[in-house]
Design goal:
Helices cover about 65% and strands about 0% of the residues. The protein has helices at about 10-15, 25-35, 40-50, 50-60, 60-65, 75-80, 105, 115, 120-135, 140, 145-165, 170-185, 185-195, 205-225, 235-255, 260-265, 270-280, 280-285, 305-315, 315-330, 335-360, 365-390, 395-410, 415-420, 425-440, 460-470, and strands at about 25, 70-75, 95, 290-295. Helix 4 (about 50-60) runs parallel beside helix 11 (about 145-165), helix 13 runs antiparallel to helix 14 (about 205-225) and helix 21 (about 335-360) packs antiparallel against helix 22 (about 365-390).
Length: about 475
């Protein structure tokens, strides 16, 4: 039987075969497309990071809406005998501001127990804990970064709008729980999405934008509260809710999905379209994406909302990293990440312990120590978030970052108890805070430095990279 394959001429057969181009890694491909930092990326990074503004506003709004207003005596003959408002007859005193300025005065809870008056704030943070556990992995598994950010912002905004119509403190607390549930993943999704849209050189700078926006949102609340000081507390909720919905519309039309997440999920055409839309050079627009190498794990066989957590815990090196950064987050981009976080945590802890001594020997210097400790702890945590997103691959990055934020919230649960105990003995508050912050930073010693390094996209790729480096500090056994 004749061979159907065309015969090659002697001249053609003598030619050596052309060498195949080695496959490029996904990180190399993305760096070639978006390694620079153009105006489009600046705009997108700022727009995504604005979610932190609304995150901060929803977190601290209860400071103004749930506060007990000041009051004055209407009958001095009665008030002279009592200083407790609950011991005064009704009609002998009145609020300095209209009753609708606070939920305490509007619903008459000025004499209620601390459990009832503190229920809305507790419900909000309980919602943050539950939302962080339930929603954390959806950004890695099914929804993606952009859709998860939109879902979280919309849930947070709509529940806040419904809060305006609360008839009593019980409905109000339930809606605050839903508000915290939606808010739980806003910051992590915004941070991961904004940093995955830029090259490795700009990850630290872009991450700082989010922290700046959080501070901006926190500082904007007193201004809003002052402007609405004689208006209903419901008005303040509208002021922070309506802009969030407008923000979601802008993000939907102007922000693309993370190309890394799209590649890892097998949606290559969408990822290529996104990369070409973000490309900084003409050569990147005509670049071929056919030889991009992705060490894809078979995750599609068993994907649910907890698949990312299982992946993190099944790999010993990943569990080691996650534990270390979570412990650091519980206790608390210009230089090395690991050394900076370690230095700031130790500095914060030392200054906090020194507050105990300064409070007895040199009280005027105690305030300086408190400020140094506070700002060091804040800086350490901000850098911890950036460090965490560089430690873990794309397939589990959002889940790992959410777990670190959950560790922060869990650590904050003990703060009110220590503060209350510290009113009588500052060794209990400053001393315990200082030792906890300083000691919790020590597990970072065994982790690798990530500044300027390659971001991996799958667990196998990260394991392979660590094996090649021969790092003795990080176990690579599955």
């Amino acid at each position: 039987m004749a061979d159907s394959t065309p015969l090659l001429s002697d001249s053609e057969s003598d030619k050596p075969p052309e060498p195949k181009r080695p496959p490029r890694s996904l990180d190399e491909t993305i760096e070639r497309c978006i390694g620079g930092f153009g105006w489009l990326q600046i705009f997108q990074a700022i727009l995504v990071s604005l979610a932190w503004v609304f995150d901060a506003q929803q977190t601290f709004i209860s400071v103004f809406t749930d506060a007990e207003p000041s009051w004055h005596c209407a009958d001095e003959s009665v008030c002279s005998s009592f200083s407790n408002i609950c011991q005064l007859p009704k009609g002998s005193w009145s609020w300095d501001w209209p009753a609708h300025t606070s939920i305490i005065s509007e619903w008459g809870h000025q004499c209620s127990t601390s459990f009832i008056t503190g229920l809305p704030a507790s419900s909000f943070f309980m919602g943050c804990l539950v939302g962080g556990l339930v929603l954390a992995t959806l950004a890695d598994s099914t929804l993606g970064r952009k859709n998860m950010l939109l879902f979280s912002c919309l849930t947070m905004s709509l529940s806040s709008i419904f809060t305006v119509f609360s008839p009593n403190i019980w409905i109000y607390s339930a809606l605050r729980f839903m508000n915290g549930f939606g808010r739980a993943t806003v910051g992590t999704c915004a941070l991961v999405l904004s940093t995955e849209l830029v090259g490795k050189r700009w990850r630290g700078q872009v991450g700082v934008i989010g922290f700046f926006c959080f501070t901006l949102g926190f500082l904007s609340l007193p201004v809003m509260a002052y402007v609405n000081r004689s208006s209903s507390w419901r008005t303040l909720y509208l002021w922070i809710s309506v802009p969030t919905i407008l923000y979601c519309i802008l993000v939907h039309f102007l922000i693309p999905e993370s190309p890394r997440w799209l590649f890892v999920k097998g949606r290559k055409e969408e990822a290529v379209t996104t990369l070409k839309g973000l490309a900084q050079t003409a050569s990147a627009l005509t670049m071929s994406f056919s030889n991009v190498l992705i060490e894809q794990e078979s995750l599609d066989d068993n994907v649910d909302i907890y698949s990312s957590i299982r992946i993190l815990l099944n790999k010993r090196w990943a569990a080691h990293r996650l534990t270390a950064v979570m412990v650091t987050g519980f206790g608390i981009g210009k230089i090395n990440r690991k050394d900076s976080i370690l230095g700031f945590t130790i500095l914060s802890g030392v200054c906090s312990v020194l507050c105990v001594v300064m409070g007895r020997v040199w009280p005027s210097l105690q305030i300086a120590m408190e400020l140094i400790s506070f700002f060091s702890a804040c800086t350490a945590f901000n850098m911890t978030l950036i460090y965490t997103l560089e430690l873990f691959p794309t397939c589990v990055r959002n889940s790992a970052l959410s777990m670190v934020r959950q560790a922060l919230v869990f650590g904050g649960v003990f703060s009110p108890l220590l503060v209350a105990a510290g009113r009588k003995n500052n060794l209990i508050s400053f001393g315990v805070f200082g030792m906890a912050i300083g000691i919790c930073g020590l597990p970072l010693i065994g982790l690798p430095e990530t500044k300027g390094g390659v971001i991996c996209d799958t667990m196998d790729e990260e394991e392979h990279r660590q094996t090649e480096k021969g790092s003795a500090a990080i176990p690579t056994l599955a």
